[in-house]
Design brief:
Layout (H helix, E strand, L loop, with lengths): L9 E4 L3 E2 L11 H4 L2 E2 L4 E4 L3 H23 L5 H29 L12 H19 L16 H8 L8 H30 L4 E5 L8 H12 L1 E3 L17 E6 L6
Antiparallel strand pairs: 1-4, 2-3, 4-7, 5-6, 5-7
Amino acid sequence: MLPTTTPATAKINTTPVTAKDPAGTDAKNPAHSAKKVDLTNSCTISFPAEKIESASGGLRRDLVRLYRQLRNHYLSAHIARPAGTSTIEQTLTELGLELEAYLTKKHLTFSFERSALQKIFDETVARWNKVVDDVSGNPADNTVSQAGFCNCQEHTRLQAAMLPFWFTNAGLTRRILGLSQDFTYGIVNESMRVSATQSDAYAMHWNMHNDDRLCEVCLGYGTGGANGYYLMHWFMPAPPPVHYGCRCQYQIITKQQPQP
């Protein structure tokens, strides 16, 4: 399993943060520079990264098993596609319910609704189906949307491997790992955004994952707003992941003490 950094799930802050303007521009205008995010007696709520990685690992394990059966001709593409879709859907349901329980315990509002996460689900299913097509020898096209989405070290190395890598056993396995991780992080971060809105939270915080996948886009969002803090009425970046492999997380900032 890839190394993870687990953010604190409940951390009390006491220091005000001076903000940039809502668009993330470090303007000289006093009206902008005077804005602050007051973190005095605030609380940071973050879904534990180890739970995300656990869900990702379970999905990856099940999809890799299907991939190997397909590759060894024990399974047809006709069966592998819906079997993978069912596995992804099961992960969505289990993770969604776990999120609902966790956020409710923190006295936040969140009701798991499949419709709010449909886009993430559909994109993940499309990536799985592309893997199945490439393994079964019926690719819909000759491209793989996997590398080149950012300038981080991780993707620079992968891009250097050139396109044929993604059609090898190692490349196909890596694509399954990637779609599993992007799916679980995407579900959690979108759910945190929805919960923050429903719960009338004070702000959101873009928590950067400082590994070799950190890119300029991640850094921009992690230092924008007020050093990565965004009041709920400000411009706010779309929830991570912002590129394949991104493990940044959205954290909810409240002015209430969460339950332990």
